[in-house]
């Protein structure tokens, strides 16, 4: 068994699509109209057949509340792996990304946390 799809609640699908593709560098794999919203699936530019990240609208009240509460508590909604966290941190800073935690050594890992501008905190990790 393997993970093929995971989703992330976002406040605005268009804004999220722009941020995740243009700023973070993910690649759009699917963008399918589904009524009022769209099925937007992204993949890593390094793994076009890898796990898909769905930009899920937070339209449901429970989704909005969940997203709002974990953000307020400083809890990242998800985690992405990077090869060189300091390089990625500097690249994202240059692109205007706001970090709530700069690269910090935690045992054998180094992590950092940023605001995705779509209602989420995202953690990046270098092993």
Structure described in brief:
The protein is globular, with a radius of gyration of 15 Å.
Protein described:
- This protein is an alpha/beta fold.
- It has one domain (5-126): 2,3-Dihydroxybiphenyl 1,2-Dioxygenase, domain 1.
- It is 26% helix and 41% strand.
- It has three helices and eight strands.
- The protein has helices at residues 13-23, 61-72, 85-94; strands at 5-10, 27-34, 37-43, 52-57, 78-81, 99-106, 109-115, 121-126.
- The protein has a four-stranded mixed sheet. Strands 5-8-7-6 form a four-stranded mixed sheet.
- The relative contact order is 0.19.
- The mean pLDDT is 97.
Q: CATH homologous superfamily name?
A: 2,3-Dihydroxybiphenyl 1,2-Dioxygenase, domain 1
The largest beta-sheet arranges its strands as 1-4-3-2
Query: So, CATH architecture?
Result: Roll
Q: Summarize model confidence as the mean pLDDT.
A: 97
Structural class: alpha/beta
Secondary structure: helix percent:
25-40%
Topology, number of strands? 8
Strand content: 35-45%
Please compute the radius of gyration using only Cα atoms. 15 Å
Low-confidence stretches: none
